[in-house]
């Protein structure tokens, strides 16, 4: 079984499932990263260039996100575990508390005040907001 196989390799494994509540925004973010080659922003340079709207690229990313999430959930069921759920939007809203909660789940004593600030900054801006709005409008028009 999957549980026995993983248990043999990782006997005390704990699972943390990181996901986004807003899959449309995640899809836009992924499509923009693929188009620009910029997967993170440490605040050391300019913002990524504006990206042309591409419904198919965003929709492909969204499908991969949904399929990937389904695979993770199937794995968690197969190994009979309930992972700690970390929602990206909650992480952004309260980074230190979320990191401390993950540490506690893993058995590491860590106060929020001990958590360093994030090294990456959020890349989304007005351009991303326009892409999300247009994508949602187009999905709605298509009946999705």
Structural description of this entry:
With 144 residues, this protein is mainly alpha-helical. It has a domain at 15-87 and 124-139: P-loop containing nucleotide triphosphate hydrolases (Rossmann fold, 3-Layer(aba) Sandwich), CATH 3.40.50. 55% of the residues lie in helices and 6% in strands. It has six helices and two strands. The chain has helices at 2-9, 23-36, 55-78, 88-93, 95-105, 126-141; strands spanning 16-19, 84-87. It has a two-stranded parallel ribbon with strand order 1-2. Helix 2 (23-36) crosses helix 3 (55-78) and helix 2 (23-36) crosses helix 6. It is globular.
Query: What share of the residues does DSSP label as strand, in percent?
Result: 5-15%
The backbone outline, from C-alpha atoms, is globular
Strand order of the largest sheet: 1-2
Q: Work out the oligomeric state of the chains in this entry.
A: single chain
- Per CATH, the superfamily of the domain at 15-87 and 124-139 is P-loop containing nucleotide triphosphate hydrolases
Number of DSSP-assigned strands: 2
How would you classify the helix and strand content by structural class?
Answer: mainly alpha
Main β sheet profile: 2 strands, parallel
In CATH terms, what is the architecture of the domain at 15-87 and 124-139? Answer: 3-Layer(aba) Sandwich
Q: Percent of residues in helical segments?
A: 40-55%
Mean pLDDT equals 86
By DSSP (H or I, 4+ residues per run), the number of helices equals 6
CATH topology of the domain at 15-87 and 124-139: Rossmann fold
Order of SSEs:
HEHHEHHH
Radius of gyration: 18 Å
- Unreliable sequence segments: none
Just give the CATH class of the domain at 15-87 and 124-139: Alpha Beta
End-to-end distance, in Å? Answer: 37 Å
């Amino acid at each position: 079984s999957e549980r026995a196989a993983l248990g043999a390799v990782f006997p005390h494994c704990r699972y943390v499932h990181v996901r986004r509540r807003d899959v449309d925004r995640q899809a836009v973010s992924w499509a923009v990263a693929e188009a620009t080659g910029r997967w993170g922003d440490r605040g050391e340079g300019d913002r990524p260039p504006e990206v042309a709207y591409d419904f198919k690229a965003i929709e492909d990313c969204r499908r991969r996100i949904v399929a990937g999430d389904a695979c993770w959930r199937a794995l968690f069921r197969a190994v009979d575990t309930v992972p700690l759920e970390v929602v990206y939007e909650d992480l952004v809203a309260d980074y230190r508390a979320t990191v401390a909660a993950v540490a506690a789940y893993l058995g590491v004593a860590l106060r929020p005040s001990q958590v360093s600030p994030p090294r990456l900054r959020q890349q989304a801006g007005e351009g991303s907001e326009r892409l999300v709005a247009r994508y949602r409008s187009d999905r709605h028009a298509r009946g999705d």
